[in-house]
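User: I'm preparing a small set of examples for a lab meeting where we compare how different chains pack in three dimensions. I only have the primary sequence for this one, and I'd like the structure in token form so I can line it up with the others. Please keep the answer compact; I'll paste it straight into my notes.
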Amino acid sequence: MNQALLDHFGVLLLEWNRIHALSGAKDLTQIQAQIVDSVRVLDFIRPFKTCLDIGSGAGFPAIPLAIYCPHAHFFLVEPNAKKIAFLHHVKMALGLENITLKRARIQELLPMSVELITSRALMGTQELITLCTPFLESGGHFLFYKGSLLEQEITCLSSERFYYGKRVYFYRQKE
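Assistant: Understood. Below is the structure token output for the 175-residue chain.
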């Protein structure tokens, strides 16, 4: 893990946020909390080599995960022009060669197969699973950063969820 890269990412996001309002973070402390939230999952998820992050926005969780997991390749999918421009800037500024950016919606993606699919605050869990399942290889995992409404979003919840404070991490293997 490279703390200097995480710090640089935080500074870049704060600079861009002032002009483009990419996230709700107002200072480096709030960005640091989002970084911690992004990588806390490394305590319980299985190692992976490929990850598809849907609705990458300001780069959470994918950018911190890409910094922590340089051995894995990340595909960041974001349809918003200013957000994808920010992600391109971050990729170049931090030299993150393990990232591929795609300006698209999940419904427009060409076929691919990955071991892990992540998403944070994009859409309901059931809909996200339906849209993402074709991209997840057999034995792969979904990892969704959710809030307290998860149990209302999905009817067949098992023990495959983890709570940390107000954050719910939904982690489930493809069936």
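A couple of notes for your slides: The chain is about 35% helix and 25% strand. Helices lie at 3-20, 28-39, 62-68, 81-94, 125-132, 150-153.

User: Perfect, thanks.
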